[in-house]
Amino acid sequence: MSFPDRRWRLALVVLALPFLLAVERPPGLGDVREVRTWSYPSFTRVVVELTRDARIPREGLVRLAANTPAGRPERLYLDVPGYWVGMRYDRGVPVGDGLLRGVRLGQNTLRSTRVVIDLERYGRHRVFTLASPTRIVIDVFGNRKPATREDPSGRLPAGLRRVQTIIVDPGHGGSDPGATGVAGLREKDVNLEIGRLLARRLEERGFDVVLTRDGDQTRSLEERTAIAESAGGDVFVSIHANASARAKARGIETYTLDRNHERHSLDVAARENGIPAAKLDPLQRALASLQVDEVGHHSERLAGLVHTNVIRGAQSRDRTLPDLGVKKGPFYVLFMSSMSALLVETGFVTNRDDAALLRSTPYKRVLAERIAEGIDHYRKQVELGMARSPALAGGGR
Question: Domain containing 124: what range?
């Protein structure tokens, strides 16, 4: 930017400052609580945390071309009605990670805040909201491969792709213990041990594995799925243990993502998402805009193979263990991942018999081996499908 341009912009700020300071804030508006970013080589996540529910306008995130004479880079912007930010972010939030220059927030109107993302490189984006607390999540992806005549955007086709990188997500952790069950059995400990065992079994089968946590760390749902996206995962498997107010409830169930679900699925999803079940309704509207159908069929196939193997292994140790089946529910960690994804509830920490099994390391080894075997079966089916339909192989890496 030239010196005259800088001077002109500074003059505008100086002229606007008395106006902004003099204007009384309209009543009934929410506030921006925090802006967070996670940066990786080909993926950046921006999270704007708010103090109350927010509505994303129908036009969503708007992309603007660069204005070189004015010194403005290519950018994305989103107007959020019902919020006041004033001059709090007048200096912006610098990023400078090769994808984003930074994030700016300003008062677009007296009753609307504008979020602007200045871009350095761009492939695609998506935006959605989460509840409790309200967060606007903006994902910006860089091109994962050079553009070609067949695919000028440089993006990978959606759907079937080779299965090599597995994201293993041991649920909860750190300050979030998850459910606590019989004799103080903590879900976060069960999840971590199974996750570590699963990672080893997958590596033995030749997979590349990324753990979202390898210790007792606190990881937000945004951070877990940012790790998955940045690693270019092909499968996301989240490990959890169930809980119920009914001490007799026990068994294993596996979840995939879908818009349709039963009341029980809502209750489980609300607990794992860490929000009241009533807050899941806005999520359903978000799911419709995320085109879940692109990977839904593959996730269902994956979940079926994993669940069948897990049940066989678990019932070889305890024939009375109930098979609760493959179900669908609105889990944040599933819809925030763009790959085939499933969530395994390995048993009820609140049931005496299930808790005894989940304390047993040999039993957890069986669960890990059977999950790995199911994923391996899925990989072989994908490879067979690609061999029969060479056109699908273009989605491989």
Answer: 23-141
